[in-house]
């Protein structure tokens, strides 16, 4: 399997998320808006999704660096940073009530991000047994949960796009520095 396909699998959330915004740098602590307890307008909800795009674009950098890592420890650290951003995105999506027509897709996307956190953190634990980066990449290739979670994310985003909440554009991965 080509390196790019592996990256795409891990980046499904990052690459397929909402709008075509781009930013560079690594993911770090960020303050995220949450959805109010009562249903918010479509406009506000779209803005929340845009914030998630910004988080995801920053997280792309961590995954890109993971695949360029010289050591398994560094790969694990970058993937852990990615999982932390996925957890933050899930928390934002669970922070309130989206517009009625987006509630089902929002719940599906929140679940997909949460599932991705579990998959990536489990993968990071499994990577501890790898002696080389090549062995770590082989473990990632063999992980069918990465593909499953990618499909969950894509399905939820497709639904949000059909409802008019996302542009359907995908961010371009940022080159690592």
Mean pLDDT: 76
Backbone structural class: mainly alpha
Q: Roughly how much helix do the residues carry, as a percent range?
A: 55-70%
Distance between the termini: 24 Å
Short description:
The chain has one domain (3-16, 40-162). Helices cover 64% and strands 0% of the residues.
Detailed description of the structure:
The relative contact order is 0.22. This protein is 64% helix and 0% strand. It has seven helices and no strands. It has one domain. Helix 5 runs antiparallel to helix 7. By secondary structure, it is an all-alpha fold. The N terminus and C terminus are likely disordered. The radius of gyration is 16 Å and the shape is elongated.
Search tags:
mainly alpha, 177 residues
Secondary-structure topology with pairs:
Layout: H1 3-10, H2 12-16, H3 42-67, H4 72-93, H5 103-127, H6 133-141, H7 144-162
């Amino acid at each position: 399997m080509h390196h790019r396909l592996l990256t795409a699998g891990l980046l499904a959330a990052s690459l397929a998320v909402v709008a075509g915004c781009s930013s560079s740098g690594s993911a770090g602590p960020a303050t995220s808006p949450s959805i109010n307890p009562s249903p918010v307008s479509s406009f506000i909800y779209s803005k929340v999704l845009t914030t998630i795009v910004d988080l995801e674009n920053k997280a792309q950098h961590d995954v890109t660096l993971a695949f360029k890592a010289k050591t398994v420890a560094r790969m694990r650290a970058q993937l852990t940073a990615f999982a932390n951003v996925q957890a933050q995105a899930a928390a934002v999506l669970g922070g309130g009530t989206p517009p009625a027509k987006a509630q089902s897709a929002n719940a599906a996307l929140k679940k997909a991000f949460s599932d991705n956190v579990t998959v990536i953190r489990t993968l990071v634990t499994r990577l501890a047994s790898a002696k080389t980066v090549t062995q770590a990449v082989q473990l990632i290739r063999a992980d069918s949960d990465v593909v499953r979670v990618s499909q969950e994310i894509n399905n939820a985003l497709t639904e949000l796009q059909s409802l008019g909440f996302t542009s359907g554009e995908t961010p371009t991965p940022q080159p690592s520095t």
